[in-house]
Amino acid sequence: WFEAHIAPVRFEGFRTAAMISLRDLTEAHRIERMRVDFVANASHELRTPLSSLLGFVETLQGPAKNDPTARERFLGIMREQAQRMARLIDDLLSLSRIEQHMHVRPVEAVDFTVLVAHIVDTLTPMAEENGVPIALELEPNVIVPGDRDELARVVENLIENALKYGRSEGEARPIEITLARRGVSAVFSVRDHGPGISPEHLPRLTERFYRVDAGKSRAKGGTGLGLAIVKHIVLRHRGRLGIDSAPEAGALFRVTLPAIEGTPANST
Ligand code: ADP
């Protein structure tokens, strides 16, 4: 899209010419489009569980009023739908908080090794439930300046995605989680051996609400905002997010963050 201004100009005293100036509106249109899409998507995502909740309330007040078995089952579904709405609202709030400030402040020295080990511990029950083993390789004392909760969110989202989408066919292959220091950077990566992602989806994966398979994502409790949150947090920490994947070849998510000199592993 361009905005054009046409102005008549005298040329060499006797000829008339027109000067056309063009202003690129593509970027402005794109941003406006994204804003409109975002509001529409967020409303739709909230509407769906809400409609389902209202439907069950009506059923419980009417046909299922005196049926204790149906009541129990419906209350269970209603609880799940309400939890889904709560998750979505939490994610939307996280995104808007993260987007308000370009850089994190105040910054603390976060022991990334301890952070990753702790999150892996908390996700072990989910890994067992999904039948996905975890292989862990963490370099000690990798220290990253930043916001502990935000960094935890990055680690959690990437590992949870690998557990949700990265299950290999047949014999379960482990997801590989590594943390290492490379020069002045900390490199955290999560690799799975699941179905992978086709190249056409890769550039859009960190867009809000973008999912390769919306049904699968919802069934696994996804909001479609996880990778958008990851990307924003990483950028705020002056880091980079790399995604590498191909169909049937699993997926690799790699986060590179500026690190600070840690205590050598054997110095205590
Ligand atoms: P969601 O809440 O849907 O998981 P995300 O933003 O975390 O949202 O991820 C966006 C989409 O990227 C997911 O819906 C899924 O289709 C795809 N995806 C993310 N991680 C993986 C992975 N490890 N393997 C295959 N697909 C993935």
Number of strands: 9
Shape field: globular
Low-confidence stretches: none
Helix-strand pattern, N to C?
A: EEHHEHEEHEEHHEE
Helix and strand topology:
Blueprint: E1 2-11, E2 15-24, H1 26-61, H2 68-100, E3 108-111, H3 112-130, E4 134-138, E5 143-146, H4 148-165, E6 175-182, E7 185-192, H5 214-219, H6 226-236, E8 240-245, E9 251-258
Parallel strand pairs: 4-6
Antiparallel strand pairs: 1-2, 3-5, 6-7, 7-9, 8-9
Helix pairs in contact: 1-2, 2-6, 3-4, 4-6
The structure holds adenosine-5'-diphosphate.
Adenosine-5'-diphosphate binds next to helix 4 and helix 6.
Please provide a brief summary of the model.
The chain is an alpha+beta fold and 268 residues long. It has six helices and nine strands; from the N terminus they run E-E-H-H-E-H-E-E-H-E-E-H-H-E-E. 46% of the residues lie in helices and 24% in strands.
